[in-house]
Amino acid sequence: MTARVDSELLLVGSLPTSSAEEAFRAGAGLVGDLVPSLPDGESGPLGAWVAFDRTQLLEPHPDVEVLVPSASPTGRARHAYETARLTVRPGVETLRFDRWPRVPVMLESYALFRRLRDEGVIPPGQRFQVNFPGPSSVFTGAFKDHYARDWDIVGPALEDLTLRSLDEVLAAIPAQDLAVQFDLAYEVLDNEQVLGWTEGGVEGAWDRFAGPWSRLAPHVPEDVLLGLHLCYGTFPEWPMFEARDMGLLVHMANHAAAHSGRVLDWLHLAGPRYLRSEDEAFFAPLAGLHAPHTRVFLGIVLPLDGEDGLRRRHRTASRYLADFGVAMYCGFGRQPGQDPAETLREHAGVVRALLR
């Protein structure tokens, strides 16, 4: 079987743009020929990633109690311990979320995507990319005080919400127009055992990743492109934790590919910060990656060292993985630089220089 995605670049999702239209125009104009799909850039409130879900989905729910409000003077937390602390109200054993506030934004962006494609701004055949955070990523940064108990109640409700939200998106967007990517950051940190408030040890962390993935991924129809983004987060900076090597990401990626229930079209695996650019031990686990028919994108584009740094990391990774595309380390809407438009132009220029 031939892989369906052979692109050189992935736009992970978040972009340093002020609107979905700006994201589509910049993506199509700068790298439209290099990417498998175009995201809407997650601008505005979505730029805070799962903080959007905390304030728009979790906190308003009648069965969820705010134990401690956000400590941020602006209401937008600057780090993990400044977020509001939530818990399930006493006596609640099950709960249900009606609709994910992300979905109307996705559908509005798709209408804009179609208009720009009709106008010739977006090339024919290009797909619209939607990004869903994993259930544990939505949950873990907010429910710190009664983690295990609350996960048993909220985790299944978030998984059910994701399934219904996928159905809502699939009913509105033709499969041939759509690419779905799941974004898992807190799942990675959880499995690294660096989150002091989670419970259940290694086994519990793995179940919070592997269980939802094995049920959500097969729900995406085969005609829709499916991607998985694994990284270490950008809250408040990238990475929230720097691993010694890519071993955990490869372990999670192998499991995801084997339990997707369908073709996994791409994987995005975050790379190192710049000092490990030539550290062969960091990249060596890539030799054990087993994801047939899956395009691998390594998150090795860093704005701090440009073309030279990308070439250095690409050269080191190539010793262990023969063929791969590249991407920013994560979505980079929260690292826009002094001039967001120039940040995007530099990103495109650095990748094109590598391909020359």
What would you note in describing this structure?
The protein is 38% helix and 14% strand. It is an alpha/beta fold. It has one domain (9-355): TIM Barrel. α8 (247-258) links the parallel β7 (225-230) and β8 (266-270). The longest helix has 26 residues, at 147-172. The chain is globular and about 60 Å long.
- Based on secondary structure, the structural category is alpha/beta
CATH topology: TIM Barrel
Number of helices: 11
* Strands, total number: 10
Strand order of the largest sheet: 1-10-9-8-7-6-5-2
* Uncertain stretches of 5 or more adjacent residues: none
Rg, alpha carbons: 19 Å
Return the average pLDDT rounded to an integer. Answer: 94
State which percent range the strand residues make up. Answer: 5-15%
